[in-house]
Design brief:
binds magnesium ion; AAA+_ATPase; ABC_transporter-like_ATP-bd; ATP hydrolysis activity; alpha/beta; binds adenosine-5'-diphosphate; four-stranded antiparallel sheet; Rossmann fold; about 220 residues
Length: about 220
Amino acid sequence: MTIVMENVSKLYQDGPKSFKALDSISLEVKKGEFLAIIGPSGSGKSTMLSIAGALLSPTNGTVWLDGENIANLSSKQITARRLKKIGFVFQAANLIPYLKVKDQLTVINMLAKHKDRANEGALLRHFGLAHRATNYPNELSGGERQRVAIARALINDPKLILADEPTASLDSKRGREVVETLANEIKSRGKSGIMVTHDERVLDLCDRVVTIRDGRLEE
Ligand SMILES: Nc1ncnc2c1ncn2[C@@H]1O[C@H](COP(=O)(O)OP(=O)(O)O)[C@@H](O)[C@H]1O
Ligand SMILES: [Mg+2]
């Protein structure tokens, strides 16, 4: 099991007011499994994904990443685990505007202190981006930018891929291609994936769909 969340709750404190964004969520994602999370805007999807990715800590509950309870780790250890084990894909590609495509990947390899950087070229070829290696983000199409973002998320060979509305900025054809890419990576390399989406047309590419409503999970 790559990720297990047990009774995870999240309370946002906004001055004197507090708001329960997640109410005792439990879920697990197996190796090779691609889970979709749907639900109305404001229901807690991004909060859940941020907790799964250790970008946010839960108010209550436990998150096991690859058999390790990440609540017990220092922030330095959490950063190291995130870099090593998790790949994030966001709604917008969030590429660094002044870096060429290949350097978007190099930066992550440098952060992770990887010595072998052969995977950069291999990933670009794999995603049909080799001819774009020396282009800047503003010279790419939306689909190409999102493919660079996926390549960047995979450079660490992460066990867990987390995607928050990865198709939101794309037309339906490009959106489907991007989710197919994610699904293929998860299946063929035995990774685990969680994708938050509004896009019902890509749900058939996922193994399982759960709904969040008012911070609670409905299966
Ligand atoms: N940092 C925050 N402080 C206070 N409230 C927040 C914060 N982030 C999100 N919320 C609230 O928590 C709820 C869930 O947000 P979110 O997880 O972003 O939902 P979704 O991704 O499903 O749209 C929303 O009502 C939102 O306004
Ligand atoms: Mg959201």
